[in-house]
């Protein structure tokens, strides 16, 4: 075993339940696969030998619940024992994890290359001497950015503002958009603020606090801070009781599947949404400074649109002199078979800002136009403004992605998984509906008539799967997910359908 991966010590109960027998079968399926695993110490397959949670898990949850709200708890995990694509619980149950911490683990649990980066003197320094980056960046901060985050900057964007999380990345991108817009209206970076502006802003009134907006889409999810939450339209529970800005929302295309059979209808639907977007840009009383969009609406139900739709949005934002922000918090860093999902669109000009977090383990937004730097210091600022330790980790993730060619790998394994699901959808059309994500790496989803039961039961077969929206089963495996993992997943999906 490598220094970092433990040999799996799978619990083998004396009397196996029917489902534990099922996982044994899955292990045999794997044994026939010729593919070389990326991590030789990964378990051969999932093993479930107790109820979930089991006795140890129950005890730990009860202890936790005394001091921490556990009502959203999905699985109590034991991270030191988790390996690659597999997450373990305190009872020794081992799950193939295709949810991966809400799509945020890129290269596997306890990845040795990341563990090595974590132990480096550079990381230790970054962790224990956390800088207030705007004021006291370290003399190697430029090099950390240039050898890490910026090596994977989307085409056309060469600068970054680092942030703490996805919501924060979007929130700061919106602020950059508003400052850019007002600077244009004011007549350039050197025109000073008026007395009226500096007075009114202290009362949260215009013109200092201007009547501008960010346009987002129905069912979008952009985060939970105040600005980002105003652009989030996924579920009421995400927004209730929180004051929000009166900002416009346009319809996001509701495509019909299979796409090949509904090409004309879908094109009409996208044209309708673009028309609505343009109308809102022109008529909303608080004019948008930017349009923000996810390449694939993720939390809102895995809703896709065509490259033509996104090219249409780029065109509209150019036409109306507003910014185009692409929220790649969930789609970014390889999962769609391209490093950035918007690379699938063949845009005539790059987005103005691309926000990222999750699999990057750090967060922020990329941009290219120097006018997106505010005209004065301290306008886009907070104590930490990101975290060098997390930026160093992203650099190690990028190296691991390159070493194993994981973006191309994910495109290929995604095609394999999609083909398997398409086969199952043909056999069980009532159980696998609206299969989507063809050609989008492993960023695949389908609707299930009993979605919540499907997700719950998947655990007892040893697979951790997430949902999105009301009915979607969303697959978000890591970039190290391979064909033999896909075989296990497909086998479990079929068992769940039959059960
Ligand atoms: C597309 C998208 N944007 C923003 C966010 C918010 O990110 P965070 O939860 O890190 O604040 C999420 C989180 O799921 C997301 O999926």
> Would you give the CATH topology of the domain at 119-402?
Aspartate Aminotransferase, domain 2
Secondary structure class reads alpha/beta
Measured as a percent range, the helix fraction is 25-40%
Number of helices, counting only DSSP H or I runs of 4 residues or more? 15
Please tally the β strands and state the result.
14
CATH homologous superfamily title of the domain at 119-402 = Type I PLP-dependent aspartate aminotransferase-like (Major domain)
Query: Main β-sheet, in a few words?
Result: 7 strands, mixed
CA gyration radius, whole angstroms: 24 Å
Explain this structure to me?
With 499 residues, the chain is of the alpha/beta class. Among the domains are: 1-17 and 65-98, no CATH class; 119-402, Type I PLP-dependent aspartate aminotransferase-like (Major domain) (Aspartate Aminotransferase, domain 2, 3-Layer(aba) Sandwich), CATH 3.40.640.10. Helices cover 37% and strands 11% of the residues. It has 15 helices and 14 strands. It has helices at residues 18-31, 55-65, 100-103, 112-119, 121-128, 141-147, 166-186, 195-200, 226-231, 263-283, 307-319, 388-403, 406-427, 451-460, 483-498; strands at 86-88, 94-97, 159-163, 213-217, 249-250, 288-293, 323-327, 353-356, 363-367, 433-436, 444-447, 463-464, 466-468, 472-475. The protein has a seven-stranded mixed beta sheet. The protein has a four-stranded antiparallel beta sheet with strand order 10-11-14-13, with helices on one face. Strands 1-2-12 form a three-stranded mixed beta sheet. Helix 1 runs antiparallel to helix 15 and helix 13 packs parallel to helix 15. The longest helix has 22 residues, at 406-427. The protein is globular. The two termini are 37 Å apart. Mean pLDDT is 93; it is low at 1-32. The structure holds pyridoxal-5'-phosphate. Pyridoxal-5'-phosphate binds at residues 102, 165-167, 170, 221-223, 294, 298-299, 327, 329-330, 357.
């Amino acid at each position: 075993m490598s220094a970092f991966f433990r040999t799996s010590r799978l619990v083998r109960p004396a009397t196996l339940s029917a489902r534990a027998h099922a996982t044994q079968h899955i292990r045999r399926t794997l044994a026939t696969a010729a593919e070389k695993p990326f991590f030789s110490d990964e378990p051969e397959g999932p093993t479930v030998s107790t109820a979930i949670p089991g006795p140890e898990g129950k005890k730990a949850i009860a202890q936790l619940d005394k001091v921490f709200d556990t009502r959203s708890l999905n699985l109590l995990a034991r991270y030191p024992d988790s390996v690659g694509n597999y997450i373990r619980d305190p009872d020794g149950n081992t799950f193939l994890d295709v949810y991966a911490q809400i799509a945020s683990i890129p290269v596997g649990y306890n990845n040795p290359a990341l563990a090595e980066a974590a132990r480096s003197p550079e990381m230790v320094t970054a962790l224990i001497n956390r800088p207030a980056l705007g004021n006291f960046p370290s003399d190697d901060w430029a090099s950390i950015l240039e050898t890490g985050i910026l090596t994977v900057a989307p085409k056309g964007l060469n600068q970054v503002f680092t942030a703490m999380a996805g919501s924060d990345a979007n929130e700061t991108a919106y602020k950059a958009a508003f400052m850019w817009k007002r600077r244009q209206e004011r007549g350039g970076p050197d025109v000073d603020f008026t007395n009226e502006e500096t007075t009114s802003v202290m009362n949260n009134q215009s013109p200092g606090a201007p009547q501008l907006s960010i346009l987002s889409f129905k069912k979008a999810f952009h985060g939970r801070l105040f600005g980002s939450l105003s652009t989030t339209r996924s579920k009421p529970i995400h927004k209730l009781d929180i004051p929000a800005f009166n900002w416009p929302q346009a319809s996001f295309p509701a495509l019909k599947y299979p796409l090949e059979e509904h090409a004309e209808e879908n094109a009409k639907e996208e044209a309708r949404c673009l028309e609505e977007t343009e109308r809102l840009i022109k008529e909303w009383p608080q004019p948008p400074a930017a349009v923000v969009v996810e390449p694939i609406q993720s939390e809102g139900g895995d809703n896709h649109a065509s490259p033509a739709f996104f090219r249409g949005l780029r065109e509209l934002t150019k036409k109306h002199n507003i910014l185009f922000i692409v929220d790649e918090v969930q789609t970014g860093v390889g999962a769609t078979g391209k490093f950035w999902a918007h690379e699938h669109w063949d845009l005539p000009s790059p987005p103005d800002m691309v926000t990222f977090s999750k699999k990057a383990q750090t967060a922020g937004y990329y941009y290219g136009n120097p006018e997106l730097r505010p005209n004065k210091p301290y306008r886009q600022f907070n104590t930490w403004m990101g975290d060098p330790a997390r930026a160093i980790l992203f650099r190690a993730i990028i190296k691991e992605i390159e070493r194993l060619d994981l973006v191309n790998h994910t495109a290929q394994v995604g095609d394999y998984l999609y083909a398997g699901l398409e086969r199952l959808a043909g056999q069980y059309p009532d159980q696998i509906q609206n299969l989507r994500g063809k050609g989008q790496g492993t960023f695949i989803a389908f609707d299930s008539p009993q979605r919540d039961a499907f997700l719950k039961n998947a655990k007892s077969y040893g697979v951790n799967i997430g949902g999105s929206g009301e009915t979607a089963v969303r697959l978000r495996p890591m970039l190290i997910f391979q064909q033999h993992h896909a075989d296990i997943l497909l086998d479990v999906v079929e068992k769940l359908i039959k059960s």
